[in-house]
Design a protein that fits this description.
Helix content is 38%, strand content 19%. It is of the alpha/beta class and 196 residues long. The chain is globular, with a radius of gyration of 15 Å.
Length: 196
């Protein structure tokens, strides 16, 4: 089973991201579940959503305490909430920002993780460009497909089209595709650096 925890703020589409990720997994013939965890439901309040993906039926129903991957939609949460709690050493971290891990103040912490499992992506910038609103969720799913290899980008794009109508869907598809390509380029850069 592969478990993803998504951290963000109310109004950023955190719950929708988890739902679209589960739909993408269903489209690939796998089992998936997605559900949120709310504290306060007001806009801007921290929100966590969970997604599990497996090749067999999923019987667990509790929150994900030991995720295999983290998607962090709002980097301001890094020093406010324990977003990294329970993350395995082999885990993936994808953060919505144009800043590096060092610039975010977590460079030393992430040294314990595989460089190929870590990426930052300016998902909000892609959303503004393609959707016209600061909703990074779809772009981050494109980035997640690239960094993790656990879900195909085509499945993510199909899930986005299933969730949103017409122009909104196409804008989010473009944002997800841009983030996917961005992360692939970042990963190639890491591979070249490790080869040198």
């Amino acid at each position: 089973m592969f478990q993803i925890r998504i951290h963000g703020r109310g109004g950023q589409g955190v719950v929708t991201a988890a739902e679209m990720l589960s739909v993408a997994a269903f489209r690939e013939g796998r089992h998936a579940q997605a559900f949120p965890s709310f504290g306060s439901e007001r806009t801007g309040a921290p929100v966590v959503a969970f997604c599990r993906i497996d090749d067999k039926p999923i019987r667990l129903r509790e929150p994900i305490m030991q995720p295999d991957a983290l998607i962090i939609q709002d980097p301001t949460l890094l020093h406010q909430v324990e977003v990294f709690s329970g993350l395995a050493g082999e885990g993936y971290i994808l953060i919505n920002t144009s800043r590096s891990f060092s610039e975010l103040g977590i460079g030393e912490f992430v040294q314990e993780f595989h460089a190929k499992h870590l990426c930052t992506v300016p998902a909000t910038e892609f959303a503004m460009k393609h959707v016209g609103r600061p909703l990074p969720n779809a772009a981050l799913l494109g980035g997640f497909a690239a960094v993790s290899g656990r879900i195909a980008i085509d499945s993510v794009l199909a899930a986005i089209r299933e969730k949103f109508p017409g122009k909104v869907a196409e804008g989010n598809v473009a944002a997800a595709g841009a983030a996917y390509e961005f992360v692939l380029r970042e990963m190639r850069g890491i591979n070249h650096a490790q080869a040198d």
